[in-house]
Amino acid sequence: MRVLLTTLNSKYIHSNLSIRYLYMASLEYRRNIELKEFTINNDENYIYTEIVRGEYDLVCFSCYIWNIERTMRIAENLKKARPNIKILLGGPEVSYEAISFMRKNKYVDFVIIGEGEETFKKIMMQILSPKPDYRNIGNLIYREDGKIFVNDEGEVGSFTDVPFPYSLLQPVNDKIVYYETTRGCPYSCSYCLSSIDKGIRALPIERVKKEIAYFLLRCVKQVKFIDRTFNYDAKRSNDIVEYIIKNDNGITNFHFEICAELLDERFLELMSIAREGLFQLEIGIQSTNKDALLAVNRSTHIEKVLENIKKLTKLKNITVHIDLIAGLPYEDFGSFVQSFNEAYSLNADNLQLGFLKLLKGTSIRSERAKHGYVFRDIAPYEVISSKYISAEGIARLKMVETVLDLYYNKGGFTEAIKYAISVFNGEAFDFYEQFAYFFYLKGYQHKNHKKENLYRIFYEYACWKDRSFPGLAEKIKEKLTSDMVDFLNPEVVKRFEKVGWEL
To answer: Does domain 3-150 have CATH number 3.40.50.2300?
Structure first.
């Protein structure tokens, strides 16, 4: 019996935590189990061929919104190639509306609902037995003799009993190492699957420190905590942060998703003394519109959130990433512009402009009629329009997102952008929207651009606007030249000067 645990990661630098948990939870069967990770950028024929070559009896896919469509095509073709192969799916993308999913996709044999460690272990026990019997395995839907069977919900196991996923499967240093110390979330945001979990389960703090010490000893590049709210318990989070600072190896950095409203003075103090680059903080603002926040069960203490983020961005030795979500209830285009400008003024290192997704299992999806949501039927189920914002409005924000990512989030244009925004009376959104209009007018969205060519496009835009703002082009050229010297390799700057400003 040969079993494959696999997935399609969104990028090469990413790794999958779930299949490592399943492997470690089933160590007694490890001689039968292999792990393979692919990415959504791999050719489907390559993935299919690699799996067929393995001659596996059971293939288990970890499924998410970014990989579900490709995963299903590959799984279907595997079944066609080897009709006796068993296909098992797990993950958030198949854990909801699973019965209808099984009816639609007749080549799927098993679906694990929710956490899979105990369920997978029991499946392995049965599939290796002479007469497999899946009836008493909780959190499992399975197909037998053409019929679909739905088992009872299993008890949620102790998180403390879940094994450390990297004790045998050592992390690869050039990839992001995903790690969790808690499961669940204290909040109930209506668009988030984490809100469905009941309460928070946490690993003992001493175990967490030992596992962090392991990452530090191996000098992994980045440890990304996937705890939904790392600082839900101030004493616990501060203890972990303090341990990391005291044992810093000068190489590894740590990424946390935090709630800005819960920040205390001790956390800020610890951040202020940390090595530059040691910590990355991700903070979801989503909106500054209180009606929108209330509608999705987010805290409406937005003033405190913004104030605390300002305190973090002023430190300069940590990386701060903030998120906005376009398409929330009661937030029209004008309201989102205000949210954007308020978020932008915080001077975070990254500002992600995301779009509402109506994920399976979330309460916002069940309320779609109330808000007039039109959304894509296939993953990632992104909103097209609503009562509050038109499809054209969403498209305009998509254009802004493109330019924002290229010029703000990827860095290298600090002074030029700062000056350009000042010309637009300090309204950041006005600058990005007009720049985006020009960018799309010229068809630049269709191409991949070298970094140095982005400077040329910015200058071209400044020349285009020079009639309305005399002298803008020359001033922007001056600022861009300064930015290039600060950001680009000296050899690249020399090459740029030789070629000139024309594309």
So the answer is: yes
